[in-house]
Amino acid sequence: MIRTALIAKAGAYLIATLMMFYGETSMASSLRLADPAELAGHWQLSQPAQPAKHCALDLELNGTLGAGAECFSAWLGDSAIGWFPEPDGIAVTGKEGSKIIFLSRQKEGLYQGTLKSGATIILQRTP
């Protein structure tokens, strides 16, 4: 009786583990990693809570930040140097190459992130 209960419990754990593993795998495979060429170009950064605050920002094809990096760095309180695409957004990196902020994809050409202060920032492609 106890043996049967233990086998059933072990089976339940195995099934739950497999469901989590295959669920994560199928979810990750449904997100497409954008090509850097699709994201490179001119963007506008803004803070919705402070409409007058905005910066132009260039995402360079080589994975670096171009014009506007100083303005963005001031908002972040850290030196923003580079960027790379992730399946669900854009990661911005600092001097050591570590991710300092993640901008989540909201829709085509619109990304949103949260500063350390808790303020929301919007990155939107400029026409």
UniProtKB/TrEMBL annotation:
Q: What is its main location?
A: periplasm
Q: Which GO terms describe its molecular function?
A: metalloendopeptidase inhibitor activity
Under the heading InterPro entries, the entry gives: Inh (IPR022815), Inh/Omp19 (IPR021140), Protease_inh_B-barrel_dom (IPR016085)
Which keywords, in A-to-Z order, does the entry hold? Metalloenzyme inhibitor, Metalloprotease inhibitor, Periplasm, Protease inhibitor, Signal
Q: Which GO terms describe its cellular component?
A: periplasmic space
A Pfam family this protein belongs to? Inh
- Entry superkingdom: Bacteria
What is the similarity comment for this entry?
A: Belongs to the protease inhibitor I38 family.
Protein's name according to its UniProt entry: Protease inhibitor Inh
* Organism this protein belongs to: Pseudomonas chlororaphis
